Every structure is written in C-alpha cells, then in structure tokens.
C-alpha cells in the first residue's frame, strides 16, 4: 500500500482566467448543501470539475477534494486517499486511521468507517467532501464503503460525487427521502448566451451570430466539443466556413471521443453503438431488429446511466437518440469498420418501420440503403395514405428522388405525383410529365380509373389556365370514363382514387353545372366518410356548402357547414384536427358569409375571428381572402372606414402575391378586390364619410371606380360566356350602376339573369334581379322594377336573404317601401325593419324563415330528372331506369341525388311523396 500520496489529487483544478460565469448552476449547487449527496453525472467534457471548483471558491465551509483515477480502484487505495483528503482540512478527521488501515490491510474496514463517521458527527461546522471522477471505481467493496458512509453521514457533511456514470449506490432511496440533488448533462450544457460568451468573449474568435448559433446546435452545448471547435478555429483564416464543416468526424473531436469514450467500452458494446448510429432514434425493439438479435430491455437505460451520450426522447425512457456529434462520430467509425454492412442495417430498419406502419421512416431507410426499388414500392404503398392525410413535403421528397423509369412501374404513384404537381400549381411541369406518367397505365389494375384520374387533373389544369374549351372536353371525358366504371372495384385504394377524382371534378363542375357539382360533392362526402379520408371530408364539406350557397339554398349550406364544424372540432383525433385545420378556417368563413347574408352580424364577426385563428398557422390564401372581404363588409356596416380601407389594402397585397401562372386563382383574387372596391364606393355614396386620408376624400370613389374600370377593360368583358362564373360580369353590372349607366346595366343584367336561370344559380339570380330593379327604377321603368323586385323577394324569402337587399341602400329601401304599400308580406316587413332608414336594428339574431314552400325548387327539374322521377314513381330500380334510359347506373344515381336535392328530400319515398304534393307525378 502506498504511503505517499499524490498531492495534486487532493486539490480542485485551477480555474482558467476567462471562466464563463454560471450563476444558475452555482445556485443549484448551493441548494444541495443540505442534502446528503450531490450527484453530478454527465458525459465526458461537460464541465463537472470546473463548475465544482468554481462553487468551492465561493464557499466559506471547509472542503476536501479527491480526484480519483484507475489506480484507486481498490478499497485500500481508495480509503487511503479519502483519509488523505480529509486530513487536508486539519479538523482531526480520521486521525490514527491511516495506521489502523495498514494493520487491517483493508479486510475489515467497518471499525474504520464507524470512527470516521463519529469524527464527522463531532464537527461543529459544515464540511464538503468531493469525490471527482468516481466512474473510475468499480470495486464493489468501495461502493459498499461509500454506501455505509452515506447511511451514517451526519448533517455536518455534504458528499459530492462527480462521475460519467451513475454509481451503484442507493440513489432511489436518497431521491425519495429528498436527500439527493442531481445535476445531469442537460443542466451542464452551455446555452446560446454562454456559447456566445465563450467563443467571442473568452476565445475572442469574432464569430457571427449565425455561426455561433450553428455551433450551438451542432454541439448541443457540449463544452468539450466547443473547446475543440475553438481550438481548431484559431488556426483557420476563414472561420465562418470552418464552422459550417464542423462535424463529428473532425480530427480533434474523433481523438477526444476515441480516447475518452469509445476506448473505455467493451468490444461488443462498441459494435452495438456504431451499428445503432444509423438510426435517428431507437428503442430496444428497433435495436434488436437492426442488430439481428434480441436486445436486453435494460440495455439502453444502462447506457444512459453510463452517460454514453444517449438522450431520452420520452418520459418512459423507451426512445433515445445519440448526441448529434457523437452519432456522427459513430457513423464514421461504422463506415470505416463495416462499410458493407451499412445497406443491410438500413434495410432491416426499413422493414421494422414498415411492419409498424411508419412508412416515412421505412422509405427514408430504403433510400439510405441505396435501394430505390424498395423505396418506390413503399412510396407506392403509401400513396393512397398520403392522399388521405395529405403531406406535400413527403411527396416532394420522394418523387424527386425516385428515378422516373422506376416510377412508371407504379401507376398509383404516378397518379399521385400528377396530383401533387397540379394541386401545388405546377401546371407546366404537369403537362410536361403527363405523357410519361400516362405510360404507367399499362401496369394499372383499373386502367380506366387511372385514365379518368389523369383526365380530371388535365381538366383542373386547363381550368386554372382559363382554357374553358379544353376544360369542358377533358372534364366530360373523365366523367364518361368514371360512369363507365360502374362495376365498383373491390380495391380499397382504387376507391380512394375515385374519391380523389370526384373531389377534383367537384371543384370544376360549379363552373359548368351546379347541380352535378352537388351530386359529385355529396358522393365524395359519403365515400370520404366511409373511408375516413380527412381531406376528402373537408373538401366535400366545403365544396357542397359552397355549391348550395350558389344554388341559393342557404339553410342547406348552413346545415352542411355545421355538420362539418362539428366533425372536425369534436373529433378527438389529433390527426383529424391537424389535417382539418385549414378547412376549419374555410368552414368558419363560409358560415360567416351565410350569417352576413342573414344579417346576423355578431355571429358573422365571431366566425371571421374563428376563421382567422384557424388559418393563422396555415396561411391559406383562399381563406384569408374570404375573411378579408367579409371583414371589409362588416367594417362598412359599422361605419369603420379606416378598418375597411385597411382590409382592402391587405386584399390588394394578397392578390398581388398570387402567382401569374395560376390564371384562375389570380382572376378570382382580383375579382375579390374589385368587388370590395365597389362595396366601398357604394358605402361612400350612401353615407359619405371622410376617408382615413382626408386629402384624398373627394377623389377616392372616382379613383376606385377608375381602378375597377381598368380591370374590367383588361378582361375585355363585352360578352357573357363561361367566364361569368368568375364574377367579372357581376362586377361589370355593379360598376355600370355605380357610374349611373342604368341602360347598359339593364341590358347586361337581362343576359346574366337568363344564364343564371338556365344554370340554377339561385344566389346570382337574386343579386341580378335586385340590380335590375335598381336599373329599371333609374330608367323610370317602375313597373319592370317592381316585377324584378317581386321575383327577387319570392326567391329570397324561403332562405331568409337580407343583406343582399340592405347593402343596396336607400334606393332599395324606397323600392321595398313602395312594394309594401301594395303587396305587404311578413318577409317584406322584416326586411324593411332592418334598414337604417326605418330606424330598425342593424342586425338580427335569426334569419327570416318563410312558412311557405318556394316554387322555384321544382321548377328547376330538367327533362332527364322528370324522366327519372316518372320511372321512380313506377317503382323501378335505378338499374332498371338505367336500362330504359340507356344510361349507366351511376349516371342514374347522380340524377336521383340531384332530384332529391332539388326537392329537398333525403330518399325515394320522400321524393315521391313531395312530388305528388307538388303534382309533379
């Protein structure tokens, strides 16, 4: 046994001149003075000794320090140095015990420990005993001796153990008794301010904030890595460039980790660590799959306790990851030692993730294995899943990595790639890719369905480029193919493809055939609910509500929106909420439009707020545009001209941000801004106010009208065609009236009314009739004005239309008053009472509801629907009707749903009953 002790082991390390002050850690240590044990357990190079030395410098209590090493891993040697450390305090601790230790030769040290404990108890002051680098000790006798001391440690002594691995002491017992203060690696890591102070203060490297943030992220505040980086940076002329390349394979870092960490581990554990480094995160099951043999369930927790740079990812400590730099270091070692094994390890990981349905990770490891065929197969398998739970980032990542030739073997993959290009506005790329993607149909289970899907995408792309002729052609071809595919596939994914097709066609259809759009969206909604497709439910709900609003069926639209909001907001599924969030904003703003029309201004404002809140994270331009337009109108009602002007400016900026290659979206947004300008002009003409910028007061209406005029001329709206559905002619009619050109307006409105009637556009029809009534009044054609107004009242009564009348101001009030003098009705009375001119309330709480059934619902039945109704009345099934009318059963079902919609019933029995009441059969 050595009699001479190394004196430098009995003193704390000397602190550097430019030490980083860490007051929070020192406070934490100070709080632990009353505990029996302070345990600082963290990986190498995390500053354990330094922070303890700094803490001791501010202590008034005497402290004994013992730096342990491998030579102390016997009980006798350990006790020898322990007594030596205590005797540096000159408090009489352990006097005579060195001689006793020599006599007993460390066979029975309990008497020695008892005397030492008694010596501690006689102290009249607090003493701190620090055992640094305790991880060098493995002899169970040493741990038993320390345990004995801990058990009998009086309150005058605070024991501090600094170690890289948790010692085998009764930590849990101390923890329960609140006799233990633990400081871990996460507590010791430098934060960004400390990293900055270290690199630019102590080391004077003059790095930019970006470079410092990069190093802080790379090192995760690991002090040793920062010191090694700083050491390297002093040699570099271009420090910023070096920071970008500082990774786990840096030579200083490698040397440190080999010397201080890896070389101290058993050979099998080194292999295990290196192979696990291919994983971003892991649990024991995944480890076993990658290694190819079961893994001890306790292994990872033991590695964590050993501070081998494992970071727990959950409270249960099931999932872990490596420290970034340590993980990189291990991967480099793996590539050096076992390069041929790496692809196989990734394949095993891919199989494990695929088995559990974590397809994204499965594909990523397939790519890392260099196995594109496996990645393509997995991506194809998950294509339908991505369609249900849309994630364009995944699409982008996968499609851009897969060779085209390989993708052609997977038709569904090609289809969803096309969908991705179209729905992200990459129309030119879609057209270029389409011929290539189409080659995949030879591998399709249902080539007809795939063809229909591609045609629907073509139609969608044509529509967004305002190529209406081509849109109609592709749209009809897609519908024909879809109808021919009556024999519904049993393939679930093909059914999901059909959901996608009906969704796409549903968005096209309102521009040509509102009734068919209703059927498509209703079908889409039914199928989406059946398959739990969140995106399908969201699109179906929004589309169906919007179409019903356009049809003038406001109550039905409201009912659909309420159901949609209930579905998304009451769902406990995080997935539903996540993927439905964008559409919840759309649903709220749709509900707000209805509430606005019903003059429920408070409810409309609440819906706007909810839409805004829902859309905050997603920033969907369509939702934002609708919300701003509605906000502007609400602000005008309250006379808040500044708020309305601000909303218009925001709309202008939003419109300007829309990409020019998407002509449809561009035109729709521009239309919104023009309609909002006209609303502002109408407000100023009805109740002149001083604009926010008083210097522009006289010029504002003229300027706004001129801007609208320029836009209309740029669109060359001199004929009524398909483009009317984009709102251009609607704006033209209002612009002509605002310029007091009633004759031109009346001519245009006559054409628009004919078109709206033919296309069942009930909402447009009411708006056009009201504008026509104003035009006729200005022209002195009072009788025609009253006729137009009467038709609008008849159409608007059942659905409670209100703001469409009120927003036309005093002129409409005069017309309604004249009408009421000769033909008063409860609806007319309710409308007049809501006008400010009548001194009534500006808002209502409930929409007006008529008791009568409107007549225009059954008037809209077309010839084919009447035929279907007649055959239903004969008791024929839809297949029998299909044979008699030479239509596909699918087409007959569409007509039946359209029929139900027009009659506002839910099934065949109700339809026939209602039809008989109306004498339709």
TrEMBL record:
Statement: the UniProt record of this protein carries the keyword Transcription: yes
SUPFAM superfamilies recorded: C-terminal effector domain of the bipartite response regulators, P-loop containing nucleoside triphosphate hydrolases, TPR-like
Pfam families in the record: GerE, TPR_MalT, WHD_MalT
MF GO annotations: DNA binding
One example of a Gene Ontology biological process annotation: regulation of DNA-templated transcription
Domain HTH luxR-type: 854-919
Record key words, sorted: DNA-binding, Transcription, Transcription regulation
SMART domains: AAA, HTH_LUXR
Domain of life: Bacteria
Transmembrane segment boundaries: none
Name of the featured protein: HTH luxR-type domain-containing protein
Upper lineage: Bacteria, Thermotogati, Deinococcota, Deinococci, Deinococcales
């Amino acid at each position: 046994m050595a009699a001479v002790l190394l004196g430098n082991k009995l003193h704390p390390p000397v602190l550097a001149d430019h030490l980083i002050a860490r007051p929070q850690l020192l406070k934490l240590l100070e709080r632990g003075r009353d505990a029996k044990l302070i345990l600082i357990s963290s990986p190498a190079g995390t500053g354990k000794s330094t922070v303890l030395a700094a803490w001791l410098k501010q202590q008034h209590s005497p402290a004994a320090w013992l730096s342990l090493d491998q030579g102390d891993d016997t009980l006798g040697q350990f006790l020898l140095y322990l007594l030596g450390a205590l005797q540096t305090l000159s408090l009489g601790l352990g006097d005579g015990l060195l001689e006793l230790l020599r006599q007993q030769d460390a066979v029975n040290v309990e008497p020695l420990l008892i005397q030492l404990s008694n010596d501690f108890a006689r102290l009249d002051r607090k003493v701190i005993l620090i055992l640094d680098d305790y991880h060098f000790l493995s002899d169970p006798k040493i741990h038993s001796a320390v345990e004995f001391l801990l058990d009998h440690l009086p309150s005058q002594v605070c024991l501090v153990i600094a170690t890289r691995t948790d010692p085998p002491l009764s930590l849990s017992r101390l923890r329960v008794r609140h006799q233990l203060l633990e400081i871990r690696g996460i507590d010791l890591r430098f934060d960004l301010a400390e990293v900055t102070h270290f690199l630019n203060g102590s080391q004077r490297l003059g790095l930019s904030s970006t470079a410092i943030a990069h190093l802080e992220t790379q090192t995760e505040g690991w002090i040793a890595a920062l010191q090694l980086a700083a050491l390297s940076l002093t040699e570099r002329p271009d420090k910023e460039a070096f920071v970008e390349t500082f990774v786990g394979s840096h030579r200083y870092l490698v040397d440190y980790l080999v010397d201080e960490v890896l070389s101290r581990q058993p050979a099998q554990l080194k292999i295990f660590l290196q192979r696990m480094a291919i994983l971003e995160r892991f649990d024991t099951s995944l480890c076993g799959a990658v290694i190819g043999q079961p893994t001890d369930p306790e292994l990872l927790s033991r590695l964590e306790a050993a501070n081998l740079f494992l970071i727990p990812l959950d409270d249960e400590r099931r999932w872990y990851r490596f420290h970034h730099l340590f993980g990189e270091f291990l991967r480099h070692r793996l590539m050096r030692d076992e390069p041929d094994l790496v692809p196989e390890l990734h394949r095993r990981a891919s199989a494990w993730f695929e088995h559990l349905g974590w397809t994204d990770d499965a594909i990523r490891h397939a790519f890392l294995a260099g196995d594109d065929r496996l990645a393509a197969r997995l991506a194809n398998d998950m294509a339908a899943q991505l369609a249900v739970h849309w994630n364009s980032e995944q699409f982008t990542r996968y499609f851009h990595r897969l060779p085209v030739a390989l993708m052609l073997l997977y038709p569904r993959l090609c289809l969803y790639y096309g969908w991705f290009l179209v729905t992200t506005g990459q129309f030119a790329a879609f057209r270029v890719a389409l011929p290539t993607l189409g080659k995949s149909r030879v591998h399709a289970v249902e080539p007809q369905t795939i063809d229909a899907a591609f045609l629907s995408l073509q139609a969608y792309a044509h529509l967004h480029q305002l190529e209406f002729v081509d849109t109609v052609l592709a749209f009809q071809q897609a519908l024909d193919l879809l109808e021919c595919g009556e024999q519904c596939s049993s393939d679930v994914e093909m059914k999901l493809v059909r959901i996608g097709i009906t969704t796409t066609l549903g968005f096209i259809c309102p521009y040509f055939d509102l009734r068919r759009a209703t059927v498509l969206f209703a079908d889409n909604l039914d199928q989406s609910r059946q398959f739990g497709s969140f995106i399908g439910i969201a699109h179906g709900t929004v589309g169906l509500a919007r179409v019903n609003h356009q049809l003038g069926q406001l109550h039905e639209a409201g009912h659909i929106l309420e159901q949609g909001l209930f579905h998304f907001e009451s769902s406990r599924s995080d997935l539903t909420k996540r993927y439905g969030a964008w559409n919840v904003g759309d649903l709220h703003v749709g509900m707000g439009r209805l509430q606005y029309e019903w003059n429920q201004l408070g409810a409309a404002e609440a819906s706007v707020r909810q839409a805004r809140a829902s859309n905050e994270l997603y920033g969907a331009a369509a939702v934002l545009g609708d919300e701003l337009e509605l906000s502007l109108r609400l602000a005008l009602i309250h006379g808040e001209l500044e708020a309305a002007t601000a909303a218009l400016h925001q709309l202008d900026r939003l419109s300007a941000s829309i990409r020019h290659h998407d002509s449809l979206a561009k035109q729709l947004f521009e239309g919104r801004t023009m309609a909002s300008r006209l609303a502002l002009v109408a407000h100023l003409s009805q109740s002149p106010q001083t604009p926010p910028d008083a210097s522009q007061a006289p010029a504002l209406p003229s300027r706004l009208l001129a801007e609208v005029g320029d836009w209309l001329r740029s669109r060359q709206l001199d004929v009524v065609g398909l483009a009317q559905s984009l709102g251009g002619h609607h704006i033209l009619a209002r612009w002509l009236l605002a310029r007091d050109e009633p004759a031109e307006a009346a001519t245009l409105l006559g054409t628009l009314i004919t078109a709206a009637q033919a296309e069942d556009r009930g909402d447009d029809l009411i708006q056009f009739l009201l504008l026509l009534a104003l035009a006729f009044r200005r022209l002195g054609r009072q009788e025609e004005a009253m006729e137009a107004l009467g038709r609008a009242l008849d159409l608007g009564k059942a659905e409670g239309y209100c703001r469409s009348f009120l927003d036309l101001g005093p002129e409409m009030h005069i017309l309604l008053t004249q009408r009421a003098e000769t033909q008063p009705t409860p609806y007319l009375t309710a409308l007049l009472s809501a006008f400010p001119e009548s001194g009534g309330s500006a808002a209502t709480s409930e929409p007006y509801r008529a008791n009568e059934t409107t007549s225009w619902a059954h008037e809209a039945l077309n010839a084919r629907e009447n035929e279907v109704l007649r055959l239903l009345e004969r008791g024929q099934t839809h297949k029998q009707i299909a044979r008699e009318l030479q239509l596909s059963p699918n087409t007959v079902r569409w007509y039946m749903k359209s029929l139900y919609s027009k009659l506002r019933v839910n099934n065949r029995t109700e339809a026939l009953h209602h039809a008989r009441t109306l004498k339709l059969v």
